[in-house]
Every structure is written in C-alpha cells, then in structure tokens.
C-alpha cells in the first residue's frame, strides 16, 4: 500500500517549520484584523439591505483585506531576508582610529555571532543576515591588540537600522592577579614571607601557614610581572611570572 504524505503549505517560504499556522500568526496584526472586520461588516450591511453589490464595492472590500495583509507579508519577508551591514571602527587609547592596513596589523576584531569581518575603508564590516540575529537582537563586538595587551568590547542591539556603525575603544585591563606559593627546598610552604610585585611594595603581603599568596598584578593576563619574596634567614627571591590564573612557586633557600 502506498502512503501519501504532504509537506505543510509554506506561505512565501516565510516559515519552514511552522507552516500556514505560523505564517497566519505573524500576519494577524491588529491592523489586518481591523481591515478584515471592516470588510466583513461592509459586506454584511450591503447584503442585509438586499441591494446588489457592485464590482466597485467588491474591489473596495478585497483591497481592505489585501493591502494590509500584503504589506505585512512583504515586511515579514523583507526583514527575514535583509542583511545588516555593521561598520566597526577600532580606536587606540591615544584616541587614534585604526584605519589603514599598517595600523590594523596585529588588531583582531570578532563578534559574538561569529562570522568573518572584512576590511573596509576606515575599519571593518560584518554582514549579518537578519534571520540569523538573536531574538533579542543583542550583539557584542570585540577587538584586541595582543602585542600591546589591549582589548575592547562594544554591545549593540540590531533593530531597524540595517547599516549601523559602532566604535570599539581599545584599553588595558590591568585587573589580573598573580598568585602562587612560597616554599622551601623541601617543598614545604613557608609562612612569614613578605611578597610583592616589584614597583608596588606598599601592597606587599605576609604569607601564612602554607605560604600561599595572591596580589594585584597591575598587568593584563599573560603579561610578565616581577615578584619579590624575602624573609629573615633566607636569601631573597626575584622571579618573573605571567599574570593570570597559572600559579607560581617561589623557592626560598637559606
């Protein structure tokens, strides 16, 4: 026996998942419903009077329904197929915009939606299909210049403007920490050690049992910092270590 199946009818391919019902929901706006109701009332009034409905009246009734519905369908189709062309300008801490290829060397730009940015005059451009934007329209654009430890971020909402332009300011994020443990040659934690980042002696801490410490690095994650540890009876220790989550061991020797 042959089994016949049918795909749900898809109005103008507006919805590939919801079929007719999904399309009807989207075009059932208050304006469309009001126009349809007005056309029905006009038709009922004319028929109740027993008068013959002329072709001109039929045309008016049809237009009352067709114009707003057609406009809604066209608007829905346009917004789902339109493309946002987002222009991005990246600005250095000195207030200078990154424009030409030489200035852009080492600068990376990316978005929370992914996609490859293309270089255009004065900056970068993202082409974002309207159908691919989040439901809330929120988008974040990031930029970085790793060689200078600079990063930046700008948030926006994709709405009615299909040619938005934004600026991403590059800044140093010096909020990273440097942490670790002071130990002796037997790998036992050493208490009572004064530890600080060179240049910031006023922020020194004294280790407790276990020898653990954590200090503001005054650097971005991945940037080298110089640590200094000292305690009476031990030789002072100077050691470089990258700021961030990776802990360091400072070995004190007598």
Please describe the topology of this protein:
Blueprint: H1 19-27, H2 30-48, H3 55-81, E1 83-91, E2 97-98, H4 101-104, E3 107-111, E4 118-120, E5 123-129, E6 138-145, E7 150-157, E8 165-169, E9 177-183, E10 194-197, E11 205-206, E12 212-216, E13 224-230, E14 237-242, E15 248-251
Parallel strand pairs: 1-8, 9-15
Antiparallel strand pairs: 1-2, 1-5, 3-6, 4-5, 6-7, 9-12, 10-11, 10-13, 13-14
Describe the structure.
This protein is of the alpha+beta class. It contains 4 helices and 15 strands. 14% of the residues are buried.
Q: Top keywords for this entry?
A:
single chain; alpha+beta; Immunoglobulin-like; 3 domains; 4-stranded antiparallel β-sheet
Largest sheet: 5 strands, mixed
Number of DSSP strands? 15
State the helical fraction: 10-25%
CATH class of the largest domain: Mainly Beta
Order of helices and strands: HHHEEHEEEEEEEEEEEEE
Range of strand content: 25-35%
Q: CATH fold name of the largest domain, please?
A: Immunoglobulin-like
Number of helices: 4
CATH architecture of the largest domain: Sandwich
Radius of gyration: 33 Å
Taken from the alpha-carbon principal axes, the silhouette is elongated
Q: Tally the structural domains.
A: 3
- The average pLDDT is 82
The first-to-last residue Cα distance is: 92 Å
Low-pLDDT stretches: 1-25
Structural class determined from secondary elements: alpha+beta
Please summarize what this structure is.
With 254 residues, this protein is α+β, with helices and mostly antiparallel strands. It has helices at 19-27, 30-48, 55-81, 101-104, and strands at residues 83-91, 97-98, 107-111, 118-120, 123-129, 138-145, 150-157, 165-169, 177-183, 194-197, 205-206, 212-216, 224-230, 237-242, 248-251. The protein folds into 3 domains: 11-81; 83-169, Immunoglobulin-like (Sandwich), CATH 2.60.40; 177-251, Carboxypeptidase-like, regulatory domain (Immunoglobulin-like).
């Amino acid at each position: 026996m042959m089994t016949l199946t049918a795909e749900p009818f898809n109005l103008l391919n507006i919805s590939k998942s919801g079929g007719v019902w999904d399309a009807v929901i989207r075009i059932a706006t208050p304006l469309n419903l009001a126009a349809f109701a007005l056309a029905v009332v006009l038709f009922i009034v004319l028929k109740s009077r027993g008068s013959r409905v002329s072709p001109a009246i039929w045309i008016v009734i049809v237009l009352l329904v067709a114009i707003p519905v057609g406009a809604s369908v066209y608007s829905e189709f346009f917004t789902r197929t339109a493309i946002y062309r987002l222009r991005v300008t990246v600005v250095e801490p000195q207030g200078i915009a990154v424009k030409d290829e030489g200035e852009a060397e080492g600068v990376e730009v990316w978005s929370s939606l992914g996609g490859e940015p293309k270089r255009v005059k004065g900056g970068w451009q993202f082409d974002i299909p309207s159908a691919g934007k989040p439901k809330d329209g929120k988008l974040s654009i990031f930029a970085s210049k790793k060689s200078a430890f600079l990063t930046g971020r700008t948030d926006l909402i994709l709405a009615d403007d299909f040619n938005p332009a934004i600026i991403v300011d590059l800044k140093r994020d010096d909020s990273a920490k440097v942490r670790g443990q002071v130990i002796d040659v037997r790998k036992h934690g050493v208490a009572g050690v004064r530890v600080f980042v060179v240049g910031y002696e006023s922020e020194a801490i004294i280790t407790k049992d276990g020898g653990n410490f954590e200090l503001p690095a005054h650097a971005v994650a991945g940037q080298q910092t110089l640590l200094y540890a000292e305690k009476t009876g031990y030789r002072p220790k100077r050691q470089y270590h990258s700021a961030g989550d990776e802990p360091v061991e400072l070995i004190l020797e007598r």
